[in-house]
Structures are given as C-alpha cells and as structure tokens.
Write a structure and sequence with these properties.
Arc Repressor Mutant, subunit A, Transcriptional regulator, PadR family (chains A, B), 3 strands, Tscrpt_reg_PadR_C (chains A, B), DNA-binding, mainly alpha, 7 helices, 2 domains, WH-like_DNA-bd_sf (chains A, B), homodimer, Tscrpt_reg_PadR_N (chains A, B)
Chain lengths: ~180, ~180
DNA sequence: CAAGACATGTAACTGGTTACATGATTCG
DNA sequence: CGAATCATGTAACCAGTTACATGTCTTG
C-alpha cells in the first residue's frame, strides 16, 4: 500500500497534521498520488500503531486534540527499504480512453476532448509556474530537491503528451463533422 | 463504475466468454483499463441481472456451462448514455513518482528508472507494431476504427513521453554518481 | 456576522486484489 | 505425458469513495 509511503515522503520533508497532509495531497503530491482526508486519517492511525509516525498532541478544550505527525526512525527506515523495491507500473484506468475507443457519439466525444484539453493546459501552466518558481536552475540541483524536480518534470512531460494527443483527437473529430 | 462500460465497449465489438474478455483485458483493452478474470465474472453477473448483457449457454457435462456474452439493446443504449457524460480525469497513483520525489536511494532509483525505461520501450514498440498492422492508413479511418486508432495514439504519446522522462532521470542520476 | 479555512473523525459502501478450487482440451 | 490454454467461479480481504457529523478560528 503506497499511500503509507507517500505520507512518509511528505512527512520526511516536514511534519504536519492530518489536515495539513490532506492539503498537500490536494496540491503538489496530489499530482502523482490522490487521497482524501478521511483516508489519510485512517492510514495515519494505522501507521502510528505500527510505529512509523509519532504524534505531538495539542489539547483543545471541548474539541478533539490537534495531532501533529512526524516520521519516526522506523518510518525513515521503512521508506528506504521500500525505495529499494522495484516499483510496479501504474494501473491503467482511463474512462476517457474507453469512451474514445467505443466512440459511440463523436460529437459528444469532441466536446469531452476539448474539456480535457482545457484542463490539461491549465495543469501544465501550473507545472511550468512551479518549475520556474521552485527550480529555476535545474543544473544546480542535488539530493531531495533533484527528486522533486524530476517528479515535476514527469508531470510536465505527461501533460504535454496529453495536450498533443487531445489536439490530434480534436482535429480528427472536427473534420469528421464535415 | 467504468469496468461495466469497458466490457460493453468490448462486447459491442464482438461477443465473448468471460474468459475471452479477460484475455482482451490482458491485451489491447488492458492498455487503458486493467481487470482480472475474477472481477470480470463478478461484474458480468451483475450486468446480466441488469439486462445489459445476455448469455448463450453451451452445456458441458460435469463442468459449469460455457457462457457466451453479448451486448443487449439496453446495453447499447447505456453505452451511448454514458458516452455523453463528461469523463473524469484519471486518478493519479504512481509508486514510481512517489519514490522519485522522496529519492531516498539514488542508486536504487537509477536501476528502477532503467527497468521502467525498458518496459516502456517494449510497450511502445508493441503499440507501433499494432498501428502499422491495424491502421496503416490513418487518413482513411472513420467511425469505430477511428476511435480505436485514436485510443492507440494516446498510448503512443504517453509511452514516448515516459521514455523521454526516463532518459532525463537516468542522465541526471548517472551524473550524480560522479 | 458570514464564509471559508482549520481540524478530526465515523460509517456504509463500492471496487479491486489475492488466494483458492476445479476440470477438459489441445499441442508439442 | 506434461504444460499451456480454455473455462468458471467462491471467499476473504484491502483500498478507496461518499455521506455524515462537529466545532473553532480567521478574515473580509
């Protein structure tokens, strides 16, 4: 289960509350691993029991305690152990491609592809912005920063490929509508 | 749940047994939707109950009957209805990218990236072969064939992007190992 | 003073994986 | 004659989604 490991990576960068982790999963990390707060709380509880993370409590009268999670030495060890395993390829599950393959309604498909193109274009410009902001000089990077740069680079490559694909789809489907 | 729809798309091309569908999900369809035979049998049973597919039985003494599934008119209608819904983006879940982002062991990462590169390269050449074989003249395509061509094209775009990404990762991680 | 961010969770359900089980037919 | 392919499933489990629940603090 790799959500555990995504959480460990995030906590190894900086300690956080469950809520804070959920925010991170909405933003940067979310580009390669999506998770909801409910799921994160569930997994954090399990991880604490297993000794991979520890909590610092802040009492808040009336309400549930605020918990700040940190990675433990055991957690760091587990992260290294896991990082040495070969990773499995992503599981392919694309509604969009299934729909395209069936092509039951080319006009609806064209609209859907246009929507996708817009979304991907927006994502791509967010990636480019992030690259300009956080990694202005990629030749100088090393260690952890290099990792996050290379991860971002993957997002950029994928988004560019997706964009080019959408454009080809749109070109073909538009010419179909005589 | 889009496995249902992936099955409907596949059956709309040609009727098949559960086993046969599982084979298709190992091959072509598997590039954009993965599923095991166990899951397929489960979903087919539910779909038959819902009237989306029908079966033709072949008695086989001693053993369970062989069932050949076909899409029903209700199934075709459902496929069209679904195809008009906007599709959600793929859920990002990449072990590889999480590992890269953490970059706990650059040497192990380089090996993993090389493995990935090899796998992707193999996949890409399978795609190219399939394109040459099934869609030698893309300008002439229309209807269903156009859909399957465009779906394949997506696989090609993604594989190329992945390959280029892996090469950049390898270049950076190799130069790190002074 | 209202909206939105901060903060933590439970419960029911759905979808998917892994392990197990069985047996005939085909091909080298 | 043994391995691979054809063929169908059950059961236990794990991961992830959706709906519900609660309450404070901050900012415009």
């Amino acid at each position: 289960m790799a959500l555990e490991h995504a959480i460990l990576v995030s906590l190894s960068e900086k300690s956080a509350t469950g809520y804070g982790l959920a925010r991170r999963f909405d933003a940067s990390i979310g580009h390669f691993w999506r998770a909801t707060h409910q799921q994160i709380y569930k997994v954090l509880a399990r991880m604490e029991e297993a000794g991979l993370v520890s909590t610092k409590l802040a009492k808040r009268d009336g309400r549930l305690d605020k918990k700040t999670y940190s990675i433990t030495p055991a957690g760091e060890q587990e992260l290294v152990r896991w990082s040495r395993e070969p990773s499995n390829r992503e599981v392919a599950r694309s509604d969009f491609t299934v729909k395209l393959r069936g092509l039951a309604d080319p006009v609806a498909m064209r609209i859907d592809a246009q929507r996708r193109r817009d979304e991907v274009a927006e994502e791509l410009s967010a990636f480019e912005e992030s690259r300009a902001k956080h990694h202005p000089d990629p030749a100088e990077l090393s260690g952890k920063k290099l990792g996050s740069y290379l991860a971002l680079l993957g997002g950029i490559h994928y988004a560019q490929a997706d964009l080019a694909w959408c454009d080809e789809i749109l070109a073909r489907l538009s010419s179909e509508e005589h």
